[in-house]
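[Solved] Which block belongs to which protein?

Original post:
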Amino acid sequence: MGPDELIGHLAPPPQFETASLESYVPDAAYPSQQAAVDAVRLFVDGAPAAKGGGLFRRKPAAPAAKPGIYLDGGFGVGKTHLLASLWHRTRGRKYFGTFIEYTAIVGALGYREAVAHFRGAQLIAIDEFELDDPGDTMVMSRLLGELVASGSRIAATSNTPPHALGEGRFAAQDFLREIHALADRFLTVRIDGVDYRKRDIEGTAVTVDDADLARTIEGVAGSVTLDAFDDVLRHLATVHPSRYVGLIEGLSAVAVTGVRTLDNQTDALRLVALVDRLYDAQVRIIATGVPLDRVFGDEMLAGGYRKKYLRAVSRMIALTSMS
């Protein structure tokens, strides 16, 4: 995959191809959701024209629009829907991707070439901005600084997990502090709520028995892969994360046998990157062995990558529950 093909994938996932502010349904129990819709609309469309006023009446000056908006909230409250809606509503050259996708592209192309490809874009939309890797965060901060200076606008979401909703403002401040000169240019919007992925499904990942595996695979319409869990991990180590999207292209489901609890942090992070791509493409997961919501051990969940792992767990529960 060359630079143009890598960057050409930077668009909202298929399930958000038609996302709009009108199709986002705020939960009345959480007024911040409607407030977030209003903030996104204002960010994209600007303030409505003032009505009334005499010929010689001077209109008050509108506050200067900020070049960035940061949606901060827990998993499954609609941040990605709002980000995709913002992207669709924006005219001109624009890009949409996860933080991991952007950093992988910078790593694959080199910093200067990545800047050259993104420069001049009207909008850079970044889903799930990560705060757990200082190196990647600073690279992205520098990249965003150059792009904002060239006229681009930035929209981002956070990855605050449900258990840390009270820490949302702290997470947002971490993000803003890391991007130094951009700090006062971002509008931070808090979104409260519960994970929609857990409203209609059980809180554990679905597994199948070895005896039922073949029958389950046969029931899938479309292409399905079948691999051992450890074989998948070994193969992921040979592929750059920016190219994981090519591994799953055209698939309806992936079947994985012998899932076990991971003891290697690098394997765990590669799995997270793969799960993000599977979720974006809505590729079903069929698995045997340890339920995928228990693939990350307690020590990992207590470490610095907790937010990434919890997001992956939420997504694996949803993907194994598909039929």
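(Second protein starts here: sequence line, then its structure tokens.)
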Amino acid sequence: MNRQLSDKISQEGKPIPAARFGIGDVVRHRLFDFRGVIFDVDPEFANSEEWYESIPEEIRPAKDQPFYHLLAENSESSYVAYVSQQNLVHDEDAEEIDHPAIDGLFDRFAEGRYRLRREHRH
């Protein structure tokens, strides 16, 4: 896939990559065993510095890339995750996510992605 650059510039003055995934996409983490559905996108890192510093330095992602809010699941639980673009891939399983908040945000699952409820669309 070609990597497009957006017209946005990071605080460091570098171009910010365009978002590779959209709301409703089902994705999988590259390093950890969980998957989820995207419900929000930040063009670049927008969480606390404390959260960022808690990531081990050897796997800490760059801040100047899109970050995604996920309704996530693993074999043990459901939760909300915040993940950098570099650590996500499309989930090829095309199976639904088992998360209790899905029905509040999305109205259906078809062709491997979720459709946002009308009241949440802009």
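Accepted answer:
You had them paired correctly. Confirming on the second one: The beta strands are 5-9, 15-17, 26-29, 35-42, 67-73, 78-84, 88-90, 106-110, 113-116.
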